[in-house]
């Protein structure tokens, strides 16, 4: 008898084990660090999905181009004070060495946070693009498109030289409802345009 025949003779009465058709897995109710991290990542993704700022091509500005914008109804004196840097800067965001996508996310979150904490005058340092061969100021160009898309933004203007000049921008944000109510009480119910 060959070795193979001998093996089959020995195994003739062996029956294969029956495999169960279902595997019971007990679901863990424990909240592990992994669960917390996955939930946080899902929340961040959901917030980023709400970000409406566009990343398609925009007209490129040069390093010394001045940014300037104000909503209709904003008082000229208020805008002049912003332009001249006369308001206290309550928060700053530095976008140097950021990609357009990174800047998009940071600007969106920065404006939301500033509004949440009722900040009125803030600044973004975007750089001039002087190191680019074509002297195009990419982030400045995108900011010029992004900032008017925020309903919270009343005005913005390139900063004074001591604050970065055309490499930075002052931004004035809309008052919160609470601040508007305080002003109405303080000034006897007089209405002011655009919530300034």
UniProtKB/TrEMBL annotation:
<keyword id="KW-0378">Hydrolase</keyword>
<dbReference type="Pfam" id="PF01713">
    <property type="entry name" value="Smr"/>
</dbReference>
<dbReference type="InterPro" id="IPR036063">
    <property type="entry name" value="Smr_dom_sf"/>
</dbReference>
<keyword id="KW-0255">Endonuclease</keyword>
<dbReference type="InterPro" id="IPR047688">
    <property type="entry name" value="Endonuc_SmrA"/>
</dbReference>
<feature type="domain" description="Smr">
    <location>
        <begin position="93"/>
        <end position="174"/>
    </location>
</feature>
<dbReference type="GO" id="GO:0004519">
    <property type="term" value="F:endonuclease activity"/>
</dbReference>
<protein>
    <submittedName>
        <fullName>DNA endonuclease SmrA</fullName>
    </submittedName>
</protein>
<keyword id="KW-0540">Nuclease</keyword>
<dbReference type="InterPro" id="IPR002625">
    <property type="entry name" value="Smr_dom"/>
</dbReference>
């Amino acid at each position: 008898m060959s070795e193979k025949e001998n093996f089959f003779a020995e195994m003739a009465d062996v029956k294969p084990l029956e495999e169960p058709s279902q595997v019971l897995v007990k679901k863990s109710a424990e909240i592990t660090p992994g669960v917390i991290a996955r939930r946080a990542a899902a929340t961040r993704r959901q917030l980023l999905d709400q970000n409406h700022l566009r990343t398609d091509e925009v007209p490129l500005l040069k390093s010394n181009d001045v940014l300037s914008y104000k909503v209709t109804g904003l008082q000229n004196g208020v805008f002049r004070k912003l332009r001249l840097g006369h308001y206290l800067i309550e928060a700053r965001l530095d976008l140097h060495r950021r990609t357009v996508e990174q800047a998009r996310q940071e600007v969106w979150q920065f404006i939301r946070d500033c509004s949440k904490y009722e900040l009125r005058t803030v600044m973004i340092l975007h750089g001039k693009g002087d190191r680019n061969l074509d002297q195009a100021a990419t982030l400045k160009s995108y900011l010029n498109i992004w900032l008017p898309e925020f309903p919270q933004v009343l005005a913005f203007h390139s900063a004074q030289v001591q604050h970065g000049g055309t490499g930075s921008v002052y931004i004035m944000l809309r008052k919160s409802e609470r601040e508007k109510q305080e002003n109405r009480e303080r000034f006897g119910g007089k209405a002011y345009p655009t919530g300034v």
